[in-house]
Amino acid sequence: MLVGGYTLGRNLVSLKLIPPDTARYRLIPHVFEIVSIFMSNSTIATKAQANHINQRFELFKSSLSIEFKSYLKKTLDLTQKFSQGGLDQSIITQAFQDIEDNAKNQRLLLEKLLNWRLTSNELAPSFSIKQSQIDHINQQFERFKSPLSVQLRLSLHSILCSTHLVLQSRLDQSSKVQKALEDIEQNAKLQSLLLDKLLNWCLASNELDLEVSSEPSIAISHKTGI
Known about the structure:
The chain is mainly alpha-helical. It has helices at 2-14, 22-83, 92-114, 131-167, 174-199, and strands at 116-119, 219-222. The N and C termini lie far apart (56 Å).
């Protein structure tokens, strides 16, 4: 730090950016030290803000993810019972109806999860962030979720198509019903993996270039309408 400071000092003197005054020249290392401390404190503040945002996202997704996984588990339980001979032929229709209802509920919950956005109205007063940074964070989440959302929606659509065919009596043969259940189980397992990836999203501190701002604070919220 000191060597760098004196080197910079000589360069500034040679460029006639500062007068060749020894006292001023020797102040440069101390300026470097002050800047270093400031940058360190700024890094800590940035990590704290990133952690706060991640905690708010965690709070938002918690109840939705629990409910989504509950429907997913019910669907998997039904398919596994059938594959083990645990479902009588007379209640297959009801089982597929339940699976269809589960998938429809999952679709609603998924849209709520995917509609998560950062807003500028509820964050603690000590946290300040610019609107451009809010937009940047939302863009990051949009890029992250985009491929996952496509796959999740396709998986849910596939399940709904399978249940629709069975409920409309277009799959009368037991072998076709079995194949439909296998497809449903496969898609449900895929959903579980994709959902975990979506829920594991977090904001890294190096992706949040926070600066002191007089603009309103931020908070995480979601759209309530579907």
